[in-house]
Specification:
With about 110 residues, this protein is mainly α. The chain is built from four helices and three strands, in the order E-H-E-H-E-H-H.
Length: about 110
Amino acid sequence: MITVCHPRDEVEQMLLVAELEFAGIPCFINAEHFGSLYPGMQIPWYNEKSIRVPPSCYEEATDIVNEFRKGYTPQSVGLDATSKFRMLAEAVLFGWVMPYGTKKKRPE
């Protein structure tokens, strides 16, 4: 199987797989479940996911992916400064699990 693309996020992955299956192209997501075990920064050759297709379907699959990406904007585009700073802090601190906001207290 040949790698067609690396999805930018989970939404793009789901939609690309749906497009490929609709076109009748069998596909396989490499590191699908492993990448979900270790969410956060996508590191090539470690937890980065890739969509693979048989060699006979490569050209058609590439056309479908390119056509799809013309109209799709990843979630990371258009983030505000606070979100960008938070992502940078998570990457630098290797935490990737920093809580967002404050925990609500229960009334006693």
